[in-house]
Amino acid sequence: MGKILIYLHQLLIIKKFKQMKKLLLTVVVALSTLAASAQFMVVTTYDSEQEETMDQITANMGVGFMVSDDITLGGVRSLDDAGDNSYEIFVRYNLAMMEGAYAMIQMPTEEMSDNMKVGLGMSFAVWNSLYLEPNYTMPVSEDGNGDREGEFNIGIGYRF
To answer: Please, which pLDDT band fits residue 15 given cuts at 50, 70 and 90?
Structure first.
């Protein structure tokens, strides 16, 4: 009788293992399909204020996830006024009226509404998935001197 119970116990363990294996395989297929249909992009902005090293290109590097054909959400590593690393969130909306045009909002993770920037830009396909992205951004609120000086940036993007 004891040998029969041990045998049945092992059969139950094998059956549960097969069910878990099927469940795991289903989850892997579902997630890989989601990742395959999603489009990611790596972006950076040329920073002429940096010294003549790779920091001019890598100081403002970030990653974006295209939620839909029109909306991209992402995060960017940038340098604050003191020269320390800080992180910012960006949202892009592709404008339907012109191919490659987009409106953007970029804000730091701290004091978001006070330091928010809005802007317009264009994406020009250079080669395969490499894009040149000139844009103009302007702060929403005035600085300490009462100015809202915008800036022109040259960006590079690569889409996966």
So the answer is: low
* pLDDT at 136 exceeding the cut of 90: yes
Q: Are 106 and 99 in contact (CB under 8 A)?
A: no
- The residue ranking higher by pLDDT, 27 or 142, is 142
What number of other Cβ atoms are within 10 A of residue 17's Cβ? 10
Please give the Cα distance from 158 to 40 (Å, whole number). 8
Two tokens, residue 143:
């600085």
The topology under which CATH files domain 39-159 is Lipocalin (2.40.128)
**Sign of the C-alpha dihedral computed for residues 152, 77, 157 and 105 taken in this order:** negative
Using alpha carbons only, how large is the chain's radius of gyration in Å? Answer: 24
Return the structure tokens found at 103. Answer: 């409106």
Residues 76 and 92: their CA atoms lie apart, in Å, by: 13
Q: 93 to each of 68, 73, 90, how far by Cα in Å? A: 10, 9, 10
Residue 72's alpha-carbon distances to 55, 82, 103, in angstroms, are: 25, 29, 11
Provide the residue ranges of all domains of the chain, joining segments of one domain with +: 1-37, 39-159
